């Protein structure tokens, strides 16, 4: 393909040049919008991290003050730790569950199709709706536990640090497992059936086939899904904001929430911008790290498989 | 299993296929036992809260506190829904519709144009290739992380506390993924078709609408659904960029309901049902397209 590409382009070069001129105006509306509300804010957040601003008045340069105060403050390390915990726990819970469900749903059987219809319903709800539902459901006074009279269900789920963190991970999983199952379902269906038939002739059982064929074939899907989970978990905001507001105390105070509180509740936009920059760096770093782990060029290899 | 395949080697072709089928049936039975119980368990986990939301939204408050939470109401009532609808819900609903339509339609249009331009012109233009690179990079920018400068820009544009303040950043953040998905689809259109359009004297703009648009329509639907769900359920933009109750969208309205009627759980849950209803209807009509829309760009 690449060997063939140069000649047709090279011969009518003036024509292609004319064509790209005649189509390049088409990217301008999108480019302008994305620059105004994507690129400029990204540069802006870096600049704002070196300024002092209360969100209303004038913006004044502040040098490295914000960075110094945030990096030495007690809040940052804690919220990085909480962010990491939420990320790691929800990844560890979601990945095997989504894999199993995805593989299960990939089989073309009618009742599984019916199950799939119901499984995917959480995808439709907003984070705010999910958070409101679970906080009502788990209410220690009027929730499910009291109503059913089960002692073990009747706890102050969102009132104790570790419990609240556990509940958060569960609710995150409840919301996102369907999405990742959907990705796995699609990927499993792309595995050539010939591979399974060959394995069956060799006498491989279901478990063996799962570990020797399905799992290796899903390598890049696992990386994609994990990247989305891990990078996505940096941006959980709505759910935590409505469910626990970072509490009890600061037990579920993730970076995004810490940024919101610093900026929009304490009106310290400078320090909040520092946290935002850290958030961006974490996101980029994690995405690159996962790409490395996958051996790089995951998208190329997926194209080969397709 | 290896033993069961042996007994009938003479009739080779037949025996292989029949015993292979038998082996598959047996092993899938074993999977059903494990996978089956697991999947039914997960079904309960998923459906229990949803069931609870729906039945509770039809209960009276007294009923809610007194009754077993999992038993449907003995005397269903629509009072909660009436209360929610009277409490500005209609206004939030209209706002959500305006914001969603106002963001998704322009975003899809300009993303489609950009994707077309990138696919058609990239070969001869470094500019278009770098624009494409910029959009790809944009996939990695989390909205939360740039919300402070967006807030500043919106204030400076005198748009704070308007629906336009929610719409503009929503458009911008819908662009990268939409361009990626649409460009992938436009690339699949055979080059000969473009060439014959050109020979017929069609302009690029004409080709965009008469050739690319009908061929890429499924991808456009996917993109519209993906963006639409994101904007409809969006929370952080309305939270930060608006202030007055007049400008609230549904998710923010839900949150304020919870603050206002916190103890009136049935009413809060009725508002959850009403907020989700439009999407549920959409799900019932076009489930396949909705699901492929959700995994836009990832499932392909």
Automatic annotation (TrEMBL), chain B:
It is a multi-pass membrane protein. PROSITE patterns: ABC_TM1. GO terms for biological process: transmembrane transport. It is found in: Cell membrane. Residues 1-25 are annotated as: Disordered. The keyword Membrane applies. The keyword Transmembrane helix applies. Residues 93-286 form the ABC transmembrane type-1 domain. It holds the Pfam family BPD_transp_1. Keywords: Cell membrane, Membrane, Transmembrane, Transmembrane helix, Transport. GO terms for cellular component: plasma membrane. CDD domains: TM_PBP2. The chain crosses the membrane at residues 33-54, 92-119, 131-157, 163-186, 219-241, 261-285. Belongs to the binding-protein-dependent transport system permease family. This is ABC transporter permease. It comes from Actinoplanes auranticolor. The lineage of its organism: Bacteria, Bacillati, Actinomycetota, Actinomycetes, Micromonosporales.
């Amino acid at each position: 393909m690449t060997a063939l590409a140069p000649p047709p382009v090279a011969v009518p070069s003036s024509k292609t040049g004319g064509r790209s001129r005649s189509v390049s105006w088409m990217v301008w509306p999108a480019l302008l919008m994305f620059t105004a509300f994507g690129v400029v804010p990204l540069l802006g957040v870096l600049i704002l991290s070196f300024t002092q601003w209360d969100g209303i008045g004038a913006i004044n340069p502040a040098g490295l003050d914000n960075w110094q105060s945030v990096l030495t403050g007690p809040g940052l390390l804690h919220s990085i730790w909480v962010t990491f915990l939420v990320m790691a726990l929800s990844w560890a819970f979601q990945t095997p569950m989504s894999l199993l469900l995805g593989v299960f749903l990939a089989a073309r059987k009618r009742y599984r199709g019916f199950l799939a219809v119901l499984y995917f319903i959480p995808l439709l709800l907003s984070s705010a709706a999910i958070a409101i539902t679970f906080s009502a459901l788990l209410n220690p006074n009027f929730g499910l536990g009291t109503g059913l009279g089960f002692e073990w269900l009747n706890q102050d789920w969102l009132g104790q640090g570790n419990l609240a963190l556990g509940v958060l991970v569960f609710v995150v999983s409840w919301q996102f497992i369907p999405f990742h199952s959907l990705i796995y379902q699609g990927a499993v269906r792309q595995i050539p059936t010939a591979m399974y038939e060959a394995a069956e002739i060799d006498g491989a059982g279901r478990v063996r086939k799962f570990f020797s064929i399905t799992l290796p074939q899903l390598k890049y899907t696992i990386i994609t899904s994990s990247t989305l989970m891990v990078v996505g978990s940096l941006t959980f905001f709505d759910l935590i904001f409505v469910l626990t507001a970072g509490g009890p105390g600061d037990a579920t105070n993730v970076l995004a929430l810490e940024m919101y509180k610093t900026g929009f509740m304490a009106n310290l936009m400078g320090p909040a911008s520092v946290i935002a920059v850290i958030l961006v760096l974490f996101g980029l770093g994690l995405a690159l790290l996962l790409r490395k782990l996958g051996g790089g060029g995951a998208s190329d290899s997926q194209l080969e498989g397709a | 299993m290896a033993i069961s395949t042996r007994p009938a080697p003479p009739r080779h072709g037949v025996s292989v296929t029949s015993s292979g089928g038998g082996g598959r049936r047996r092993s899938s039975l074993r999977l059903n036992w494990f996978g089956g119980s697991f999947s039914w368990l997960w079904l309960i986990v998923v459906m229990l809260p949803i069931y609870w939301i729906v039945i509770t939204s039809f209960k009276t408050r007294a009923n809610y506190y007194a009754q077993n939470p999992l038993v449907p109401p003995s005397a269903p009532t629509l009072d909660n829904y009436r209360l929610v609808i009277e409490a500005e819900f209609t206004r939030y609903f209209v706002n959500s519709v305006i914001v969603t339509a106002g963001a998704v339609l322009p975003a899809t249009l300009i993303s489609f144009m950009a994707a077309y331009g990138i696919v058609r012109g990239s070969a001869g233009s470094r500019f278009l290739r770098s624009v494409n690179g910029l959009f790809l990079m944009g996939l990695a920018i989390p909205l939360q992380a740039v919300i402070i400068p967006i807030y500043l820009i919106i204030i400076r544009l005198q748009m704070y506390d308007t629906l336009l303040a929610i719409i503009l950043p929503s458009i911008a953040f819908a662009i990268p993924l939409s361009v990626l998905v649409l460009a992938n689809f436009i690339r699949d259109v055979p080059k000969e078709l473009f060439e014959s359009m050109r020979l017929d004297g069609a302009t690029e703009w004409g080709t965009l609408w008469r050739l690319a648009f009908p061929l890429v329509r499924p991808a456009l639907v996917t993109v519209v659904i993906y963006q639409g769900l994101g904007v409809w359920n969006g929370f952080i933009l309305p939270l930060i960029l608006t202030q007055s109750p007049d400008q609230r969208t549904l998710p923010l309205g839900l949150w304020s309901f919870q603050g206002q009627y916190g103890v009136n759980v049935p009413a809060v849950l009725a508002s959850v049902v009403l907020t989700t209803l439009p999407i549920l209807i959409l799900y019932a009509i076009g489930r396949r397209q909705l699901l492929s829309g959700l995994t836009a760009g990832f499932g392909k």
